[in-house]
Design brief:
Mean pLDDT: 78
CATH architecture of the largest domain: Sandwich
Strand content: 35-45%
Structural class: alpha/beta
CATH class of the largest domain: Mainly Beta
Bound molecules: copper (II) ion
CATH topology of the largest domain: Immunoglobulin-like
Radius of gyration: 32 Å
CATH superfamily of the largest domain: Cupredoxins -  blue copper proteins
Number of strands: 9
Helix content: 10-25%
Length: 156
């Protein structure tokens, strides 16, 4: 009976919905621009984590590419040198020569591990020192660690 009237309603509804959508969109956009607090920039937060970016950070040119090679003698029961200093983000290559028996080399906190190296042999491992701190390196064979085959790596 009222079909004529019913046909008009959907069209009007669509029109109203479109209007609401447009008004809503304008309000949202102007709301974002209008509020000064939401526009507060945070560029320093992004610069604070350069770990993943290799090309963007150019504060220290050159150092990114270089690999710092550290030669270590391993014996019963010592490492020579006993202390290693590296810079954060520096690529480090540990070259360890076993002077007697068998030794390996571990830095648990940095995920560094050298295989068991027999007397007279040399092994090497490369890693990036990306955690600041002081860590112990040690030999995991037998009682070597307890007997003093440890050292300290300082990442600063
Ligand atoms: Cu050892």
């Amino acid at each position: 009976m009222n079909e004529g009237g019913n046909k008009m309603n959907p069209m009007m509804l669509v029109g109203v919905i479109v209007m609401i959508a447009i008004i809503g969109g304008v309000v949202m956009i102007s709301g974002q621009k209008g509020s000064p607090e939401s526009a507060t920039p945070t560029p320093e937060v992004m610069e604070a984590k350069p770990s993943g970016t290799m090309k963007a950070v150019t504060d220290t040119p050159g150092t990114d590419m270089e690999v710092k090679t550290i030669n270590i003698d391993a014996g019963s029961f010592y490492y020579d040198p006993k202390v290693i200093k590296v810079k954060k983000g520096e690529k480090v290559k540990i070259v360890m020569t076993s002077k007697d028996m068998m030794h390996d080399f571990n830095i648990d906190e940095l995920g560094v591990k050298l295989p068991i190296t027999k007397a007279g042999e040399t092994s090497e491992v490369e890693f990036t020192a990306d955690t600041i701190g002081t860590f112990e390196y040690y030999c995991s064979i037998g009682q070597h660690r307890k007997n003093g085959q440890v050292g300290t790596i300082i990442v600063e």
